[in-house]
Amino acid sequence: MTVDGSLGMLPDARNGDGQGGDVRGNGVRSDDVPGHGIPPPEALDAGAPADPGDGAAVTVSALSLDFPIYHGGSRSLKKTVLSLASNRMGRSRDTDAGTGGHLGTDRTHRVVVRALREVSFTLRSGERLGLVGHNGAGKSTLLRALGGIYEPVAGSVEVLGSVGTLLDPNFGMNLDLTGRENIVLRGRYAGLNGTGIRALEADVEAFASLGPFLDLPVRTYSSGMVVRLGFALSTAAAPQVLLMDEWFMAGDAKFQDKAHRRLETVVRGAEILVLTSHTLEILRSWCTRLIWLEHGAIRMDGTPDEVLAAYAGV
Ligand SMILES: Nc1ncnc2c1ncn2[C@@H]1O[C@H](COP(=O)(O)OP(=O)(O)OP(=O)(O)O)[C@@H](O)[C@H]1O
């Protein structure tokens, strides 16, 4: 079972529980979340927060990841794939369109999108990595593989340290529960005691500014309101390794401003950041290193100045 080690976080991978499996973005499986009967915070005072340990590092070795296409039996798709590649995965002629991963077939002749192809890199404490590349280049897939959400078909991912994810505002959220109940649940999954959960509730309530909606089911929220709640929950504590998709830029202008300030604190607290964005100013100002992905493979790995000059000519 993969239970998050701290708020919005996956467990420390050194416990052997941070990789693979059906982990949702915040270490909470949506099907694990009970619908009712959540004990109040004061009933939980015996618990203690997990110790995230120290010395974060990320090692990715020859990572490949495929998505099977289940209606790939259609003749036109098969014909396209067969005519595109002649026909060994990972050894394409110039078979790729301008967007998307590499289309091919696996050993059982099933059509797959090879979203990542033999990706290798290491990250040490202090590094802030930005991922750039065309639509469908594999940026989000790589983030999710680092978060243990997707399993590699080949190669490996090793993450040392607690992992925090800002990948999808809905991850780990039970839409039938109220915002407040979701906060308590998240606190419980993080191993917080009653005092910790009350502090979390106060922090998220103040930050998300949902007013009376906090006591209504999340399914009644607008998408911006879900972002507010999800963001507030996922940024309530700084993980050692923070994985961030660009959805955090969603929300109205006032919220974006607030979100940016809070994120800066989290990013300062995190030892390693991995961020995807199409916004060049964000990549330049937040990252110390960029990896340019093209059709699932690393095209370039360097400083933001080097990579942006080659990628975007800026
Ligand atoms: N769940 C899925 N099922 C099938 N294919 C998928 C799935 N998720 C991603 N893909 C495919 O994997 C490839 C990489 O997608 P990914 O979302 O990682 O790209 P990205 O670089 O994040 O793109 P964008 O900048 O458009 O968000 C794409 O070709 C996409 O079609």
TrEMBL record:
Region (Disordered): 1-52
InterPro entries registered for this protein in UniProt: AAA+_ATPase, ABC_transporter-like_ATP-bd, ABC_transpr_TagH-like, Bact_Polysacc_Export_ATP-bd, P-loop_NTPase
SUPFAM superfamilies according to UniProt: P-loop containing nucleoside triphosphate hydrolases (SSF52540)
Gene3D superfamilies, A to Z: P-loop containing nucleotide triphosphate hydrolases
Protein's UniProt keywords contain Repressor: no
One Pfam family, short name: ABC_tran
Presence of keyword ATP-binding: yes
Domain ABC transporter: 92-314
GO molecular function annotations of the record: ATP binding
Residue ranges, compositional bias (Low complexity): 43-52
Keywords: ATP-binding, Nucleotide-binding, Transport
Family per similarity comment: Belongs to the ABC transporter superfamily.
Protein name from the UniProt record: ABC transporter ATP-binding protein
The species this protein was found in: Rhizosaccharibacter radicis
